[in-house]
Amino acid sequence: MRTQVRIVAGTLRGRKLTCTVDSNLRPTPQMVREAFFSILGNAIPERPFFDVFAGTGVVGLEAISRGARSALLVERDFRLIADLEKHIREFRVGDKVQIARTDVYRWIERWRPPTEPVNVFLSPPFVDFESRLDALMNLVATLQEKLADESVLVLQSEHDAPLHNLPRAEEWEDRRYGRNHLLIWVKGEASQASETATPESLVNETSEEEE
Fold first, then answer.
1. 3-class secondary structure for the chain?
2. If you average pLDDT over every residue of the chain, what do you get?
3. pTM reported for the whole predicted model
């Protein structure tokens, strides 16, 4: 089924992405996207953004709309990539947005992240929580290892996703929006700044500065 997804804020506010929705592709709901970007606050502007398992690309494109310096959309489905390329052209953001046309699990092996803080949004296909759970957990662990301090990693999942083996499980903050969960992890010098600092306090700090 073809449907449209709207960018809700920023320079591209109101622009719509047309995409095909099926059991393998369900775009991040608008409510969840709004919550996600509200949580990040002023950690968005001027930071590189990585939309991993990009799908429609709406999260990465909204990050650009809200001031991210650049966005990399990691996606392997050639049909989705065709739509992504079309939207990038139509929105005239080709100077800021790139597509990595590859399998995410191969991409992470050779990815060299920036040495500065970045934001990473990880939205795996639901089937990966069942059929590729070990690979998915390894992906998360590799991201945690590679990211620079103060980077923010967010994993979108559903309420029944098997996350008992989530790396550094005690360091994640879990926010729920209906059936959707946003699991937030901040790589930090939290232990150096304060023994009681948590991902929640770091993220809330960022949001308060924006206000």
1. CEEEEECCCCCCCCCEEEEECECCECCCCHHHHHHHHHHHHHHCCCCEEEEECCCCCHHHHHHHHCCCCEEEEEECCHHHHHHHHHHHHHHCCCCCEEEEECCHHHHHHHCCCCCCCCEEEECCCCCHHHHCHHHHHHHHHHHHHHCCCCCEEEEEEECCCCCCCCCCHHHCEEEEECCEEEEEEECCCHHHHCCCCCHHHHHHHHHHHHC
2. 86
3. 0.86
